[in-house]
Amino acid sequence: MSDVGFHLAFWSLAVITVGSALMIVVSRNLIHAVVYLILSFVGVAGLYLTLSAEFIAMVQILVYVGAIAVLMLFAIMLTPRAARDNSETLMRYPALILMGLIIAAGTFVALETDWGAMRGEAIGEQTRIIGESLINEFVLPFEIAAVLLTAALVGAIALAREDDEDLALHAESLAEDGLLPPDADSPSPSPAPTPGGGDS
Amino acid sequence: MTIGLEEYLVLGAIVFGIGLYIALSKRNAIGVLMGVEIMLNSVNLTLVAFSRFSDSSVALSTQVFVIFIVAVAAAEVAVGLALALVVYRNRRTISVDEIDLLRW
User: Fold this and answer.
1) Shortest CB distance from B15 goes to which of A21, A34, A74?
2) How many CB pairs under 8 A join A and B?
3) ipTM of model
4) Whose CA is closest to B62, among A194, A56, A1, A114?
């Protein structure tokens, strides 16, 4: 655990993770904040690799970077007239104090507790053991998680789906702001539809 | 100096603190969700560190727990972003200090 490469990997990944998390705080553009969020996720995935948890690292890349960050980008793009400036509310000073307290308490507990015997070498064949325990002792939580994911996806679709009058209102108000051409969604009275129109 | 459990725990505490600050202070609802995701990530990092350094024979159960946390976080962010879209459609804003319909 004390070779130079491991130290280099840990400290550079720690700097990437903490630094990009701090850049989310200070960056003034929400899109840039999402990019720094992705960088922070990648840094945590690298830290999982330094802990020899290769399966969790791959799950982290696939789910967080591949799904959650892209979902956030979509949500930002779908709210075009909301504020994009990533500013902060008046809660920042209480939040700053709370952050300091949490970090101090966590550091104190981590350094002052006697954690007992440590394992020197990582467990081998982790993916096989995790997969077997998922279908043996953890099969009930596994199925519950599957039901939860299905319910959440159905709920998200039901919430985000627009029915036709919503869609017409939405297109109308977007057209008022010049974000859409005015006749993009209204049915044109002439028999020949305008090219490129009506497909938003 | 060797890198052991303590370093990972301190790192997890720092990342959790930053995520808490983001979740509490951001004005945009999507920014708040980003803070929640950072916090969940730091908790996962702490759990994986315990799983690596724990001397128990069932240490890998912790990683199964991490997988469930990731699944629940994905469900949470999907529903949260759908809620943000609905609020945007009705109120034309997703700024958390303008969404005060339930304020007393």
Assistant:
1) A21
2) 255
3) 0.92
4) A56
